[in-house]
Design the sequence.
């Protein structure tokens, strides 16, 4: 919490005619040289995606509206009666005054909402610092978006200082801020402390290169708080892949990692896969739009053969051809955990697609629910073979590109609206659509995995539906990737 002495100091600066707003320069810490308070202990959390920590409620500061607020700002257009008058609002306005930045009216209006989206607001380092000062004692915002704000190293430093005091903020997006090496140093030092409730961090597009990869990898090797990390659209290459591979072998908390749109080639791909073989927690991995090639596919095939941890793997756009597809298929013959495999935008033909599909058929324990080869042109012979695979694995859906005649047949299938078919059956049997869908789930729960939902629909005989129609139903009922929510039908 921001101590009362800090607020008093701002008041004194406001009333002292010899001091200008620039008295609080860019090096002023968030706590303004006040006595350090002990950190509140982290409260236990009930799931991987909920890290709730208790913290002392902020004290309310009541004060008269300062004269400077009457000047022309973007706040004039707002009805002041809508603004709540807690100490956080006053704190933010005074911080803006001392830092000589214009207050963001959206921030003030939404300080009591759990989601704060300040993307593309042009905050700069000082505007970010004012936001951070106000957030030190905020207990409602759990998700903060600061993408594309030119926050620079000074802004990052303000944010990490705030995060060491705020035990409520759980998700932070500071992508596209060109933080570079200096920003990576600040973030890495913060991550090594494990001193916040943050579990989701987006660092995409920050011009991180090999040195940054080394720093972040070292920090994440001992970090157990961050569950989702996005490092896409950076400049990591093979050396960075080696560093990140070592991190994956040591990390025990990370569940989702996005490394898409970097520059990993064979050496980096092999190093990443070596780390994955030792990792026991990572479930979601996005490696799309790199340059793995067939050698990378071979290493990934070994990961799929030996590891049963990954649930989602995206290697789209990695220059993997039929040879690479063959190497991946060897892993699919043994894998028991993977549910989604995305291979689109690779130079794979129908021969490579056939190898992948047949490897799934050979594996009786396969849990694969989606195979995305949507750029591969297939014939009717392939679709007939696929029907045999669907008989063995009804939870599976293969996305492909059909030749012209097949496209017309698919269009005819889609003409039959699946919801109308189900509504007709429900009316005939005097039940609701919701009752029909609930009957598909033996547990009676309102949520199902996409694979379970697809399997149950194909195995029921009352309403004949095909994979294309089921795909349409999934789009309507999907609450989050991999899950459908039947309560949407209420």
Sequence:
């Amino acid at each position: 919490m921001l101590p009362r002495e800090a607020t008093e100091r701002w008041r004194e600066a406001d009333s002292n005619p010899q001091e200008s707003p620039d008295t609080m320069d860019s090096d002023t810490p968030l706590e303004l040289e006040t006595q350090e308070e002990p950190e509140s202990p982290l409260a236990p959390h009930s799931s991987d995606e909920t890290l709730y920590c208790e913290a002392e409620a902020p004290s309310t500061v009541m004060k008269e509206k300062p004269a400077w607020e009457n000047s022309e700002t973007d706040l004039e257009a707002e009805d002041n009666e809508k603004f709540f008058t807690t100490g956080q609002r006053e704190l933010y306005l005074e911080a803006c005054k001392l830092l000589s930045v214009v207050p963001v009216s959206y921030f003030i209006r939404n300080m009591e909402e759990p989601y704060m989206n300040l993307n593309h607001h042009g905050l700069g380092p000082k505007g970010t610092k004012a936001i951070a000062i106000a957030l030190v004692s905020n207990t409602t915002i759990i998700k903060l978006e600061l993408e594309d704000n030119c926050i620079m190293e000074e802004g990052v430093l303000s944010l990490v200082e705030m995060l060491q005091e705020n035990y409520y903020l759980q998700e932070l997006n500071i992508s596209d801020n060109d933080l570079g090496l200096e920003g990576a140093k600040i973030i890495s030092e913060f991550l090594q402390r494990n001193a916040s409730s943050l579990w989701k961090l987006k660092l995409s597009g920050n011009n991180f290169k090999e040195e940054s990869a080394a720093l972040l990898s070292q920090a994440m090797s001992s970090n157990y708080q961050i569950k989702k990390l996005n490092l896409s659209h950076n400049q990591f290459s093979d050396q960075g892949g080696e560093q990140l591979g070592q991190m994956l072998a040591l990390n025990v908390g990370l569940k989702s990692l996005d490394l898409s749109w970097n520059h990993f080639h064979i050496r980096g791909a092999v190093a990443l896969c070596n780390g994955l073989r030792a990792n026991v927690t990572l479930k979601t991995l996005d490696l799309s739009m790199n340059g793995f090639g067939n050698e990378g596919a071979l290493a990934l095939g070994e990961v799929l053969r030996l590891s049963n941890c990954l649930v989602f793997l995206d290697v789209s756009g990695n220059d993997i051809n039929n040879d690479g597809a063959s190497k991946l298929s060897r892993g699919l013959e043994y894998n028991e955990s993977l549910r989604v495999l995305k291979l689109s935008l690779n130079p794979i033909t129908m021969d490579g697609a056939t190898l992948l599909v047949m490897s799934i058929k050979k594996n009786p324990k396969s849990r694969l629910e989606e195979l995305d080869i949507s750029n591969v042109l297939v014939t009717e012979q392939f679709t007939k073979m696929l029907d045999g695979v669907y008989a063995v694995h009804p939870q599976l859906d293969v996305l492909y590109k059909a030749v012209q005649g097949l496209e017309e047949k698919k269009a005819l299938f889609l003409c039959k609206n699946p919801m109308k078919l189900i509504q007709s059956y429900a009316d005939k049997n005097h039940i609701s659509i919701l009752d029909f869908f609930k009957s598909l789930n033996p547990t009676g729960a309102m949520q199902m995995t996409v694979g379970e939902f697809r399997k149950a629909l194909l195995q029921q005989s009352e309403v004949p539906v095909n994979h294309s129609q089921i795909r349409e139903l999934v789009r309507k009922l999907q609450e989050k990737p991999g899950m459908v929510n039947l309560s949407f039908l209420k």
In short: The two ends are 43 Å apart (CA to CA).
